[in-house]
Design brief:
This protein has 191 residues and is α+β, with helices and mostly antiparallel strands. The chain is built from five helices and four strands, in the order ααβαββαβα. A four-stranded antiparallel β-sheet has the order 1-4-2-3. The model has no long low-confidence stretch (mean pLDDT 83).
């Protein structure tokens, strides 16, 4: 039998298709006869975590500089969470000491979020707990874990999600501007 179109294998016996086209032909035969064999699209799996980390360039014991780096990481992290329409239930913050030892803390968020305000509050709490005056730090990072989809989040009763929706919309506009004019064309300010 000669196969001139993809429908010909559907009309053949399974044994003939196997002889002519091998196991891929058998898969095609099943697909053409209504039995799904192959995934129809890319796997839509959630990441286990999203991290934004880096060296600070030079060792520093200045709390304001360390907080500025953590803020930078948090903004980049939230930008990705918003772009992918996912939320974090926990945020981990770490600082790398001059000796390369790391100190870290995990903050459980009250609700899954991709709000820059809520994530920055968690980062600020973590920095307060981790920073030791007199210690010198060479790196830092912010990691979002326990990721869920935006659609699966439970709405709160007091309207906080509406404020977060507005922040998400703002972050999407900022992402678009930064994509067009360069990574640091605009960023949000912290009071």
């Amino acid at each position: 039998h000669a196969c001139r179109t993809s429908l010909v294998p559907a009309e053949l016996e399974l044994r003939s298709v196997g002889r002519l086209l091998g196991r891929f032909g058998i898969g095609l035969w099943h697909e053409l006869n209504g039995t799904p064999v192959y995934a129809s699209g890319p796997a839509d799996t959630l990441p286990k975590s999203i991290a934004r980390t880096s060296s600070m360039g030079e060792v520093s014991g200045d709390r304001a500089r360390i907080m500025a780096w953590l803020s930078h990481h948090a903004h980049r992290l939230v930008s990705e969470l918003v772009a992918k329409k996912i939320l974090a239930q926990r945020v981990s913050v770490f600082l790398t000491l001059d000796s390369f030892e790391q100190v870290a803390i995990e903050i459980r968020l009250p609700n899954p979020t991709n709000s820059i305000q809520r994530i920055m509050e968690a980062v600020g709490q973590a920095c307060q707990a981790l920073f030791e005056p007199g210690a010198r730090y060479r790196g830092s990072g912010v990691i979002a874990t326990h990721i869920v989809r935006e659609q699966s989040a439970t709405l709160d009763l007091f309207g906080g999600m509406n404020q977060e929706r507005k922040q998400r919309e703002l972050m999407l506009v900022m992402n678009d501007i930064n994509r067009r004019f360069g990574n640091h064309a605009v960023s949000s300010a912290q009071a």
